[in-house]
């Protein structure tokens, strides 16, 4: 379940009856099993792949970061990659922003979805914040491309968005570069409306991913909404 694979597929892997697992599947296994970098590299090699380049961004998550996430039960928290892929999230985060871990390909990237599917992806943000959010995402992609290089997922997304979104092209040609997270933002829940949250980011030393924790001021209306979401989970607020 943690690696998003069926028990039948995992059993066949253990019994050496299955196909060679992909690099993406091995990354998911490494996260689920909380492997160290050396153990992760060994897993790739015995499965017929080269060990991931540790100087490049990857889907690997340090076990210590996951242990921190495990202890965050009462506030939305999730881990994102340098290209805004939600790699793992807690239940409070799913209740607030939906399940963001089941996508594949470029659709995993929030940067790609923001420009490729504006009608649906931007519903979580007030319209007044759309330009700022778009500029921030384009600047984050440029930072990832500079660190990851022209043969990377960041480069694939940049190429695809150039063909899809004139808005992205406009931001991209401003050559803004930054890898940071807003200290304060407003999110829109489909039933509870706007929720003001403070955003704290714990970035790994190699800057490949960050643990994002969203909180609200104690006693505020936003705190009450987060408490309600925590109790109800992902079920409909109206039906509850």
From TrEMBL:
GO molecular function list: DNA binding
Residues in HTH cro/C1-type domain copies: 9-40
InterPro entries with a match to the protein in the record: Cro/C1-type_HTH, Lambda_DNA-bd_dom_sf, MLTR_LBD
Pfam family, one: HTH_31
Highest taxon of source: Bacteria
The protein's name in its UniProt record: HTH cro/C1-type domain-containing protein
The organism of origin for this protein: Microbacterium hydrocarbonoxydans
């Amino acid at each position: 379940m943690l690696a998003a694979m069926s028990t039948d597929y995992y059993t066949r892997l253990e019994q050496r009856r299955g196909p060679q697992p992909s690099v993406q599947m091995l990354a998911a296994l490494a996260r689920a099993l909380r492997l160290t970098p050396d153990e992760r590299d060994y897993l790739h090699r015995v499965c017929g792949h080269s060990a991931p380049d540790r100087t490049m961004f990857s889907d690997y998550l340090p076990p210590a970061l996951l242990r921190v996430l495990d202890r965050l039960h009462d506030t939305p928290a999730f881990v994102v990659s340098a290209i805004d892929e939600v790699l793992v999230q807690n239940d409070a985060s799913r209740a607030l922003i939906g399940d963001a871990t089941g996508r594949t390909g470029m659709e995993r990237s929030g940067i790609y979805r923001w420009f490729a599917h504006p009608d649906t992806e931007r519903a979580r943000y007030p319209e007044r914040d759309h330009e700022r959010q778009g500029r921030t995402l384009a600047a984050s992609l440029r930072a990832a491309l500079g660190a990851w290089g022209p043969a990377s997922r960041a480069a694939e997304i940049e190429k695809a968005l150039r063909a899809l979104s004139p808005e992205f092209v406009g931001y991209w040609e401003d050559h803004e570069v930054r890898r940071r997270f807003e200290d304060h933002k407003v999110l829109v829940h489909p039933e509870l409306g706007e929720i003001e949250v403070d955003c704290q980011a714990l970035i790994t030393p190699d800057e490949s991913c960050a643990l994002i924790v969203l909180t609200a001021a104690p006693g505020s209306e936003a705190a009450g909404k987060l408490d309600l979401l925590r109790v109800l989970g992902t079920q409909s607020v109206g039906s509850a």
